[in-house]
Amino acid sequence: MKSELKIKWDNLKNKLSVDFSEDQIIDLDSIIFLIGLQELGQFQKRLNKQRKMEVIHIAVCKLLSDYGYYEFDFVDEDGWPHYKLIKKLPNLKPGEQTILMKKAIINYFIKSNYIN
User: Fold this and answer.
1) Is residue 60 in a domain?
2) How many distinct structural domains can be found in the chain?
3) pTM listed for this prediction
4) Would you give per-residue pLDDT tens digits along the chain (116 residues)?
């Protein structure tokens, strides 16, 4: 029997894949990147590797802010949101990190009414 998290995750991935990817199932990293773009509010056609990493960082901060690890601080003159670290992230094994991120992503899309 599948866990509730696995069912919700698979359903979200399938919905995002239909909406954003024509020919493949979207993965965790791509979903985090999409969230970063959404939070940035700027959909630029070309981002260098550094900027892509910054977009991912925005997403991770936003996702982990619901767990009290980060707090929104300000938006800079270029429109990029900045977060400050509130409490140190726990040392998690890679599988535990994935579970935390999946839960945070599901919560993000529930709060945005993309899924229920």
Assistant:
1) yes
2) 1
3) 0.90
4) 569 999 999 999 999 999 987 788 899 999 999 999 999 987 767 888 999 999 999 999 999 999 999 999 999 998 899 999 999 988 999 899 999 999 999 999 999 999 98
